[in-house]
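Moderator note: this is an archived Q&A kept for reference. The question asked for a predicted structure of one protein chain; the sequence and the answer are reproduced below.
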Amino acid sequence: MTETRRQPTQERAKARVERILAAASELIAETGSDTVRMTEVAARAGIPIGSLYQYFPDKAAILRMLALRFMERVRDGLRDGLAGIGGGEEALARVDAILEGYYAVFLTEPVVRDIWSGTQSDKALQEIDIEDSRANGELVFAALKSLVAKRDHARFAASCFLLMQLSGAAVRLAIGVEREEGDRLMIEYRRMVRSELNAFLGG
């Protein structure tokens, strides 16, 4: 299940879902997702446990919703970061800055790190993650295709999809090791991305 059990339509219900998600985020930041209990989320949100279950059948559903919110946030940032690109060098610099910012979010927001580590065994979320990478790849392709020869568009589209999926994997690897090594890994990954894009952009 990738959505709330009961879809909120009224403002009061929407506000209750937001309280639930905020409460869960606070608890995850304090103790990690493994130890968070539904009763604690309900208490922190100030709602009866029965009301919590009306919206989320279990903790995994809450984690999925938080992950989806993060995906939306990343896509919005990607869209903004790629807007109005004028040339190849600018494209390379913008993509590099986006990757640097993506890594920074995982470093500075422990809730994001915890959510991702806690949902890696979630098959439904893995499928959503792939579709998210596809959508992000399409954004990159749309923003940069005018800089790429038309004969290479099919390959470039496939490369954009692959790079978006690999970016998530690279960041999760980087935060799973010591910070110094993680920083080195991300520097090398950003160089790889620049090299791949540069080949298509004619550099």
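Archived answer notes: The chain has two domains: 11-57, 67-201.
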